[in-house]
Every structure is written in structure tokens, then in C-alpha cells.
Design brief:
Pfam families: Catalase, Catalase-rel, Catalase_C. It comes from Paenibacillus mendelii. The structure is a single chain. The chain is of the alpha/beta class and 707 residues long. The protein contains 19 helices and 18 strands. The strands form three sheets. Strands 1, 2, 3, 4, 5, 6, 7, 8, 9 and 10 form a ten-stranded antiparallel sheet that branches. The structure holds CIS-heme D hydroxychlorin gamma-spirolactone 17R, 18S.
């Protein structure tokens, strides 16, 4: 990627535009908002040192008033989010399908701003709750802003926008006591599920590991709805959008997820921030599934139904470009909080379908910004500004920023030569696709939307055994938190329409009855693309905790750490105290965390370094033993050098496993006795050791381990 002279990513047009609004105060004098220099900022103006504060203290009044008004309403959904800047490049011209300028030329970099979010929780809730994740991308194209406002799951809970307030009321904290925060595990959510069976498919996604992403950088994104691409000749294709993360799709385990919520509620935002700061720029490929207009009715599902996906095996995903995030925000509020997305922000060549959920969204997003940002000029906020020039007859409104001179603010006019004038299609004017529509006004839903179970079955059937197990446990957990027995039973009955064995396992765990008229998922079609197990794997940016004490053997450790770093793994030393440990070779090694301040749930892998004294120190520390035990229980790769294997043994690892004891005693080569456990006590085996550890890290988790 191109860098500027200082080695920073080159500025995009959007960066330059934002720069004009950026105020750097380092080295400056303090002023009021009127630019008046302030001489005192610690003592308000009083009548005598012990006297009352005087109203004429304008600096105090201004400072306090601004503070009193610092909050704006949080988003009604997706309140907790985190954003970053980057750019998008198309691989090859999409001209045959769309006239969208930003999809024509592989040489063009379109600036983007992306905001990831959870849906149900408040602004201050934890990152790692079980939830759908928002994946909203604003492309600052030369033809105006294009927003692809998607989620990390390809379908949705409801088919018609009119049900959105009901669904959200059911999943949000209950209105009488505002409990529980950022959880679907409560009566009203599951009551909704039992009463509104169109949600079944999405509920399966929400109970799957997709709802527990390891990182924003490791989740897919989906436009969900069917959109249209329209080319220069006016020909349309139906299109579904996908974002495929280069690092693959990975999740945490449920126990870990809950613990991270306490140990580091900012886990996902910290992860994204750190990755960008360290130059590990996250990347996603943009994929499209395309259908000709005449293929609209070729499937056993309705392509307008947002509770249905197009199996990739039936309609392949074509990768058409790549998005790279390479710059963190300068100010969270100004950028991430004030960014306003809208599925109706489109450019020529991209159009809508009649999906009734999408149609409703086209109303909701402007409306919500009016409330949240306080008026109709939210497009003027720096983060929302288009890089294409804006000219129209809109004037006034709360906090208007542009100064539009002249008396003429209407169309048509003669006094300003009829400008600003509508543009022809050739000049880039947006023309709605001339779809033929006819029908009676009805409040009804098409029969083609009535199948609520087939694709839930497809999804369930396409999962690996481990993913199925996690999903089963998720249902068991969530429904165990439901107090009303009838609500629990109805949920089990609905699940029985997808797979009766699954429903029976859930029923057994929650004191409900197995459904009598269930179906079996076994014979249904599978879509391997739906399983996370079949996605890319990479050791890059994974975090390894390296457990050390004083006297640690540094020679072999250094070579292992070098190998890890070369593979892109980030290693951080954990010890009893912050500062340094002194190695057997008298080197000072910097300790990043203590056992009190971190936890194995915040790492992907654990390496116990060798050295008699070092391991003895670790063995005296119960938290070190717990660290290893917990990483093992969460199926994480564990490696030990030399005497380090004793800490594993003290944590019950290896010794408890059938072949483990042997592995620990005198392995010359890494032990294959247990999946994801790499042990070496011979220095000459170091290269093989590093390779085996990196391979174990690449695998993400070692599910066959019996814990
Ligand atoms: Fe949204 N949604 N939504 N949604 N949505 C909002 O807009 C809404 C839906 C999504 O980071 C709100 O600015 C309705 C599907 C994301 O700022 C609001 C319906 C998908 C974000 C709204 C849906 C999404 C939002 C709240 C059903 C995936 C966060 C604040 C008809 C394709 C954007 C705001 C950000 C935010 C309404 C369903 C994605 C109220 C009415 C389906 C990623 O306008």
C-alpha cells in the first residue's frame, strides 16, 4: 500500500476533507468558544474567596453548559459500535452488471468508513455478548455516498419492517425493570420466537458460534437483502452482497465469551484498534451473488424474503474487490458516534428490490438520525459529508453549516439560470430502475414467504459436529434463563420443526417435553459454505501469552518468539510482577502483564517458557496454574519448553490424558498425544517446536480435546 513521506498510509480525499475540520490543540492557549483567551480554569469567579459564584463568570457558564449537553440519544439499536477508516478497490470492472463508478476501475481507491456494532446492548455494554453484529460500510464515492448497512449474518428475524419495533422491544431489556442488558436469554425474546416462527432461521444463526466472534476482523458481513445492480443499458441483475474476511471466520467459546465481558468489555474495539495501530490492517473481500431478472422465480424460496439466503453452492459468490481498514478515528464521538448510515444512500447502478424489510428500512434510517443528531443537517457533519459536491435548494434547519448565497432556493427558476439543475443519466443523474409493479393494496404477505423452517434446517445440517454441539448448548443456556414454562415449551416445539433430535436434547436440559410432531434435519441439503470450519485459517495477529519467571531460559525462547513473530503471531510476556524478568543469560525481558491484570481468555494461545527457576516461580502462583487450565478448557493451543511442561502437568494437562504422561516425560519431538498441545524439552527440536506451535495456533481451537 502506498505511504506518505512519514510512513503513514497515504491520505484519501475523505481524509483530506476530514483534516479541514480537525483541530489540534497541542501547544495552544486555552480559549472560550468565542476565541477569547482564558486566564483561569480552576477557580470560578466568586464574591470573595469563600463567597458565592457569580453569574457573570461566562467561562464557567459556557464550560458547564457544554458539559450538560454532551450526550445525544444512543442509537435505538446498534448503540454500541466501533469504527475505522480505510479504502476499497475493485478487482475488475463490473461494467456488465452495474454503472456504479466505484466498481469500474481497479486503479481507483474509494475511501470508506466502517462501523461494527452489537445490536441489543446499550452504548456501554460489553463487546462479547451473544448477539448479531452490525457491519455498516460507508463508501465515499465520486458519485456520492453509498452505504452498505449489513450484519454478520445473512438473514434476519422478520420478513416485514412493520414487525421491527415488536421484535426489538422483545429482545431489548424488559421495559419495566431494564433487565437483562445485551442478552437474548430472557422471556420476551423467546416468547417472540415462539409466536413469530418466521424468526426461526435467524434464531439458529443467533444461537450459533457466529454470534460470538473472536474479532470484528474475523467475521463475515452480508447485505442481507436482495438489491439490484443496473448497468448503462438499463439492464438489471439481482445481487446479494458478502464481505469475506481474509483471516477467516472464528469464534470464542461461550464460557470464555462471558468471562471476557467482565475482564475486558472493550475486547473487540481494542482488538480492532490495536490491529490498525500495529499496521496489521484488517481486510475483507467483497463478494456478490448475481441473478438475472428472469431467474427471480427459479428457487424454492422467494428471493425477496430476508429470512432466506441464496446457498453459495446454487449461486456462487464472485469476489470483486477488497476493503482494507488502515486508520483509526481521531475522535470517537465526532466520527463513530455521529456517523449516520442509511440503506437508501445509493449511487447510480445500485437499486433496491421489493423486499418488505428493506422497503421499511428506507424510511427508518433518516427518521432515526433526525432524533439522534437533532435535525436535518446531519449530512453536513464531517464524517457524513460526501466528497462529491452537494448542490440543492435545501436551506436552514438546526445547525446549518454551509452558507448558500443568493435569493433563489427553488426549482424551477429563471433567476439563477434554473440551477442547480437536475442531471441527465449520462451526467450521472440517478434514475430509479423502471420495474413494472401492479397489484391491489393489501395488508398481506405472499404465500412464497410462508416456509419458516427449510433454511433453518439447511443451516443446522450444514454445521460441523462441534458447531452443532455449541448451538445445542446455546439453546439450552438461553431457554434455561426463561422463567415461563409455556414459552420454553413453545420454543422447543418450534425447534422440533427443524430437527426433532435437537429439540429433544434441548427439552431434556430445560425440563420441557420433546416435541411429538417433529421433523428430522438429517436428509436435507447441505451448504458447506455455511460452516465456519470451512473458512480460511491463519496464525496472523493471534495473541500468545508467554508465561515466564526469573531465570527463564532465553536462548531457545528467543528463537521461538522470533519464529512466532515471523508467522504474524503477537507474543506478550506474562509474569508475577510488571517490569522485567532476568533470564538465565542475564537479559532483561519486558513483562507486559501480570496474572492479576490479565487472563487466558484474552489470548489465543499459551506458551510456558523453560528454565528451572522460572518454572518454580510459576508453580508457586495458583493464578498461573489456573491460566493454563482455563486455556486448556477453552481448547486453545498450549506449548511448553523444557521444564515448562511441569506447569502443564500441574494443571492436569497431559497427565490426565491417556498418552499425555508419556508426552510430558521426555519428548524430543512435539507431542501429538493431545490435539493442540506442543511439548519439547530438547533445545535441538526448537524449529520443529515452533512450526508445530504455529500450526496449532493456525487451527484456532482443538475441539477433539476432552474437557
Ligand atoms: Fe437496522 N437500524 N433496521 N438493520 N441497522 C439501525 O439506524 C431498522 C436491519 C443495521 O453503525 C438504526 O442509525 C429497521 C437489517 C446496522 O450506525 C435504525 C429494520 C440490517 C445498523 C434501524 C432494520 C440492519 C442499524 C438505529 C427492519 C442488516 C447500525 C440507528 C426493517 C442488513 C448502523 C440508526 C451504524 C441501525 C432500523 C433491520 C443493519 C433505527 C426498521 C435487516 C448495521 O434506523
Amino acid at each position: 500500500m502506498s505511504m506518505d513521506k512519514s510512513g503513514k498510509p497515504e491520505q484519501t480525499m475523505k481524509d483530506k476533507q476530514l483534516k479541514a475540520f480537525t483541530v489540534e490543540s497541542t501547544g495552544e492557549k486555552l480559549t472560550t468558544n468565542q476565541g477569547l483567551r482564558v486566564s483561569e480554569d480552576e477557580h470560578s469567579l466568586k464574591a470573595g474567596e469563600r463567597g458565592p459564584t457569580l453569574l457573570e463568570d461566562f467561562h464557567f457558564r459556557e464550560k458547564m453548559t457544554h458539559f450538560d449537553h454532551e450526550r445525544i440519544p444512543e442509537r435505538v439499536v446498534h448503540a454500541r459500535g466501533f469504527g475505522a477508516h480505510g479504502y476499497f478497490e475493485v478487482y475488475e470492472s463490473m461494467k456488465p452488471y452495474t454503472r456504479a463508478q466505484f466498481l469500474q476501475d481497479p486503479g481507483v481507491r474509494t475511501p470508506v468508513f466502517v462501523r461494527f456494532s452489537t445490536v441489543a446492548g446499550s452504548r456501554g455494554s460489553a463487546d462479547t455478548v451473544r448477539d448479531v453484529r452490525g457491519f455498516a460500510v460507508k463508501f465515499y464515492t465520486e458519485e456520492g455516498n453509498y452505504d452498505l448497512v449489513g450484519n454478520n449474518m445473512p438473514v434476519f428475524f422478520i420478513q416485514d419492517a412493520i414487525k421491527f419495533p415488536d421484535f426489538i422491544h422483545a429482545v431489548k431489556p424488559q421495559p419495566h425493570n431494564e433487565v437483562p442488558q445485551a442478552q437474548s436469554a430472557h422471556d420476551t425474546f423467546w416468547d417472540f420466537v415462539g409466536q413469530n416462527t418466521e424468526s426461526t432461521h435467524m434464531v439458529f444463526w443467533a444461537m450459533s458460534d457466529r454470534a460470538l466472534p473472536r474479532s470484528f476482523r474475523m467475521m463475515e458481513g452480508f447485505g442481507v437483502h436482495t438489491f439490484r445492480f443496473v448497468n448503462e443499458e438499463g439492464e438489471a441483475h439481482f445481487v446479494k452482497f458478502h464481505w469475506k474476511p481474509v483471516l477467516g471466520v472464528h469464534a470464542t467459546v461461550w464460557d470464555e465469551t462471558q468471562k471476557i465481558a467482565g475482564k475486558d468489555p472493550d475486547f473487540h474495539r481494542r482488538d480492532l484498534w490495536d490491529a490498525i495501530e500495529s499496521g496489521n490492517y484488517p481486510e475483507w473481500e467483497l463478494g456478490v451473488q448475481l441473478l438475472k431478472e428472469e431467474e427471480e422465480f427459479s428457487f424454492d424460496f422467494d428471493i425477496l424474503d430476508p429470512t432466506k439466503l441464496w446457498p453459495e453452492e446454487l449461486v456462487p459468490v464472485r469476489l470483486i474487490g477488497k476493503m482494507t481498514l488502515n486508520r483509526n478515528t481521531d475522535n470517537f464521538f465526532a466520527e463513530t458516534e455521529q456517523v449516520a448510515f442509511h440503506p437508501g444512500h445509493v449511487v447510480p447502478g445500485i437499486d433496491f428490490s421489493n423486499d418488505p424489510l428493506l422497503q421499511g428500512r428506507l424510511f427508518s434510517y433518516t427518521d432515526t438520525q433526525l432524533k439522534r443528531i437533532g435535525g436535518p443537517n446531519f449530512h453536513e457533519l464531517p464524517i457524513n459529508r460526501s466528497i462529491a459536491p452537494v448542490h440543492n435548494n435545501q436551506r436552514d434547519g438546526m445547525a446549518r453549516m454551509t452558507i448558500n448565497p443568493g435569493p433563489v432556493a427553488y426549482h424551477k427558476n429563471s433567476l439563477a439560470g434554473n440551477s442547480p439543475a437536475p442531471a441527465s443519466e449520462q451526467e450521472g443523474g440517478y434514475k430509479h430502475y423502471a420495474e413494472k409493479v401492479e397489484g391491489r393494496k393489501v395488508q398481506a404477505r405472499s404465500d412464497s414467504f410462508k416456509d419458516h423452517y427449510s433454511q433453518a434446517t439447511l443451516f443446522y445440517n450444514s454445521l460441523s459436529d462441534v458447531e452443532k454441539l455449541h448451538l445445542t448448548k446455546a439453546f439450552q443456556f438461553e431457554l434455561s434463563k426463561v422463567n415461563n414454562k409455556e414459552v420454553r415449551q413453545r420454543a422447543v416445539d418450534v425447534i422440533g420443526q427443524v430437527d426433532s433430535d435437537l429439540a429433544a436434547m434441548i427439552a431434556d436440559a430445560i425440563g420441557a417435553m420433546a416435541p411429538v410432531n417433529g421433523r428430522t434435519a438429517k436428509d436435507s441439503f447441505r451448504s458447506p459454505a455455511l460452516s465456519m470450519e470451512n473458512k480460511a485459517k491463519s496464525p496472523k495477529t493471534r495473541k500468545a501469552a508467554v508465561l515466564v519467571g526469573n531465570g527463564v531460559k532465553d536462548e531457545v525462547l528467543t528463537s521461538v518468539l522470533d519464529a512466532l513473530s515471523e508467522a504474524g503471531v503477537i507474543s506478550e510476556l506474562v509474569s508475577l510482577k510488571l517490569g522485567y524478568v532476568v533470564s538465565d543469560g542475564d537479559k532483561q525481558l519486558e513483562v507486559k502483564h501480570t496474572f492479576e491484570t490479565t487472563d487466558s481468555v484474552l489470548f489465543d494461545a499459551v506458551l510456558v517458557a523453560g528454565g528451572r527457576q522460572s518454572v518454580n516461580e510459576l508453580l508457586t502462583q495458583p493464578l498461573a496454574v489456573d491460566f493454563v487450565k482455563q486455556a486448556y478448557r477453552h481448547f486453545k493451543p498450549l506449548a511448553a519448553l523444557g521444564e515448562g511442561s511441569e506447569l502443564l502437568a500441574a494443571s492436569g494437562i497431559g497427565a490426565a490424558a491417556p498418552d499425555g504422561a508419556e508426552a510430558i516425560s521426555s519428548a524430543k519431538q512435539p507431542s501429538a498425544a493431545e490435539p493442540g498441545i506442543v511439548i519439547a524439552d530438547k533445545l535441538d527440536a526448537k524449529s520443529t517446536f515452533s512450526e508445530a506451535f504455529i500450526e496449532a495456533i493456525t487451527a484456532h481451537r482443538h475441539w477433539t480435546r476432552k474437557v
